[in-house]
Amino acid sequence: MLRIMELIQQNPDLHAYLASDEAIDHWHPLVQETADALWAATGDAYSYAEAAFEFVRDTIPHSADSGDTRVSWRASDVLSTRNGTCYAKAHALAALLRAQGIPAALCYQLLADDDGGAPAAHGLVALRLPGSERWARVDPRGNKPGVDARFTLDHERLAFPVRPELGEVDHPELHAAPHPAVLKVLRESADRQELWRKLPTAL
């Protein structure tokens, strides 16, 4: 079984991971409507969290896979356009989880090409089910050949397990809001090509 990294809350107040902000806008009617529909089809926190994860993973294509050049970053925009990068899809999943009272955090990895070049930050989500004492990371990036991320809380099935020998890093910090460097490039990029040129290379 894979080792689960110890995750660190940046904010000791768990309520911070239920808050809404400009990117995780779970007060938005579309987010609420989507969350209510998923909850009606499930009815308990674990089943809902799994359904929300699979909804974001499977029904919202990663823009690099689909070729979509638009840059979305608000959760509501991700749900509306059905488009987003890893960061945007993480915002959408966090919003859906928070909309039903499940604490959700944003977390990051530093990934690289197979030769160790072109390092860039990758975004994913950690969640903590009601009554649980631990966080679990999941990656709603979207599967493709060679990528098979799953919803598992007892062991991680992420899109990209890090390769330390290539300088890749798992950052243990749990962010209540998007990292400022990530939010900056999302907001300032006119299209995905520009975003790709500006991806944060460190956090």
UniProtKB/TrEMBL annotation:
Gene3D superfamilies: 3.10.620.30
A Pfam family annotated for this UniProt entry: Transglut_core
Coiled coil stretches, renumbered: none
Protein name stated in the entry: Transglutaminase-like superfamily protein
